[in-house]
């Protein structure tokens, strides 16, 4: 089974535009990989466009090794997680949040697909700096960096309120 349905249906959000707004506001994406023996989770900067999440990476290392042997991945982003006192609750604390969790296949964009690498880096840069799309990316830079493309198979949203308006 690719995913298990959300247990708390009252917190599930399946609206794509809502999930995209959470992805747009998130500062880090936690990428989860599996090396066959242990799970491996790493927070990364990212860029989202419909159906894809892009990351950049060193060209070698544990993450790249795992992706090449097992491209199945999951991811999670969260926003608005700000605890505040809740004297009526069991713990005395309330932690509202909005999150998106998803699954997909991640691959290393081949070096000979220069346009695809540039596109992934532009999407990532635009996530943090709206004018990032126009940042020049010379061939020398492309040769030094790996671009990862997570093709999303399924994602779902979840929220717990109340929320403080921002």
Fold and architecture overview:
- There is one protein chain.
- The strands form 2 sheets. Strands 1, 2, 3, 4, 5, 6, 9 and 10 form an 8-stranded antiparallel β-sheet that branches.
- The N and C termini lie far apart (37 Å).
- This protein has helices at 16-25, 62-69, 114-128, 139-144; strands at residues 12-13, 29-34, 39-44, 47-49, 52-57, 72-79, 84-85, 93-94, 97-108, 146-160.
- The chain has 166 residues and is an alpha+beta fold.
- The longest helix is centred in the C-terminal third of the chain and has 15 residues, at 114-128.
- The protein has one domain: Electron Transport, Fmn-binding Protein, Chain A (Pnp Oxidase, Chain A), CATH 2.30.110.
- The chain is built from 4 helices and 10 strands, in the order βαββββαββββααβ.
Short description:
InterPro entries: Pyridox_Oxase-rel, Split_barrel_FMN-bd. It is built from four helices and ten strands.
Give the helices and strands, then pairings.
Layout: E1 12-13, H1 16-25, E2 29-34, E3 39-44, E4 47-49, E5 52-57, H2 62-69, E6 72-79, E7 84-85, E8 93-94, E9 97-108, H3 114-128, H4 139-144, E10 146-160
Antiparallel strand pairs: 1-10, 2-3, 2-6, 4-5, 5-10, 6-9, 7-8, 9-10
């Amino acid at each position: 089974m690719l995913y298990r349905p959300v247990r708390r249906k009252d917190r599930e959000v399946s609206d794509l535009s809502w999930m995209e707004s959470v992805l747009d506001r998130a500062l880090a994406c936690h990428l989860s990989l599996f090396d066959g023996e242990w799970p491996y989770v790493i927070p990364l900067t990212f860029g989202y466009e419909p159906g894809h999440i892009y990351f950049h990476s060193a060209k070698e290392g544990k993450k790249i090794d795992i992706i090449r042997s097992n491209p199945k991945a999951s991811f999670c982003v969260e926003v608005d997680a700000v605890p505040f006192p809740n004297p009526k609750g069991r713990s005395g604390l309330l932690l509202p949040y909005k999150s998106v969790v998803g699954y997909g296949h991640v691959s290393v964009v081949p070096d000979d697909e220069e346009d695809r690498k540039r596109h992934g880096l532009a999407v990532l840069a635009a996530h943090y700096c709206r004018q990032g799309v126009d940042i020049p990316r010379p061939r020398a830079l492309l040769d030094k960096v790996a671009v990862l493309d997570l093709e999303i198979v399924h994602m779902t949203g979840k929220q717990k309120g109340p929320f403080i308006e921002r």
